[in-house]
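Hi P.,

Sorry for the delay on this. The queue was packed all week, but I finally got your sequence through. Input first:
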Amino acid sequence: MRVETHPHTPPSPGAAPAPDLPRADVLGIPLALTDYEGTMDWMDSTIASGHRACLSAAAVHLVMVAQEDASTRDAVLRSMAVPDGQPLVWALR
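Then the structure:
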């Protein structure tokens, strides 16, 4: 199987920054206050802006691992983490 890669084209000068979503912390991990539609809108806007971004589906397990593991925590903090599961949705209320 041949995999082709394409170089990333940086956003043009003056391009709008990647969009942001409001967030709230759960055990020190900022989770986006959004729903499925809002997440899809964020992805569409990020792609349209030409910026790179990382989206994490954060379940309770990820939030707990991030408490103990610095590299996991750093990765989550650099991404747009959306709550994946009802317990985190409840915690955000």
